[in-house]
């Protein structure tokens, strides 16, 4: 799920897939990934255009309100960001912001850290 702001063109950007994975756990928009041990969260996405042609887009990966990665390329854009800087033992969330022939702001995907100690 995401919101779209359309420009005055016949072409819009489209978020085909978005997920966050940590170890064996993954979630999509609005979901929660449980981080039970040390793992590096990764954000995976596919962005395309409604006309299925190449159009320039800029994608920002946002963790808890801070931009942690930016990539600019043409659609279709398959991108995976491994968040080596994600703090251990802290819950957070990710969303993406896409700018091109329109704008997309995704719903968050939550990363909940829990202790595996008994």
| Measured distance between first and last alpha carbons | 36 Å
Supply the helix-strand structural class.
Answer: mainly beta
SSE string, helices as H and strands as E? EEEEEEEEEEE
**Rg calc:** 15 Å
How many DSSP E strands? 11
What's the shape? elongated
pLDDT under 50 segments (min length 5)?
none
Characterize the main sheet. 7 strands, mixed
Count of individual helical segments: 0
Characterize the structure shown:
Helix content is 0%, strand content 61%. It contains no helices and 11 strands. The chain is mostly beta strands and 118 residues long. The chain is elongated and about 50 Å long. The strands form 2 sheets. Strands 1, 4, 6, 7, 9, 10 and 11 form a 7-stranded mixed beta sheet that branches. The protein has a 4-stranded antiparallel beta sheet with strand order 3-2-5-8, with no helix packed on it. The mean pLDDT is 88.
């Amino acid at each position: 799920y995401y919101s779209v702001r359309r420009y005055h063109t016949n072409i819009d950007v489209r978020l085909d897939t978005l997920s966050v994975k940590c170890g064996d756990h993954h979630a999509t928009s609005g979901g929660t990934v449980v981080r039970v041990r040390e793992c590096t969260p990764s954000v995976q996405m596919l962005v395309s255009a409604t006309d299925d042609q190449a159009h320039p887009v800029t994608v920002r990966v946002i963790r808890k309100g801070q931009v942690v990665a930016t990539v600019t390329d043409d659609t279709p854009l398959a991108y995976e960001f491994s968040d080596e800087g994600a703090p251990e033992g802290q819950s957070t969330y990710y969303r993406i912001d896409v700018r091109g022939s329109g704008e997309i702001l995704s719903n968050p995907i939550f990363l909940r850290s829990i202790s595996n100690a008994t």
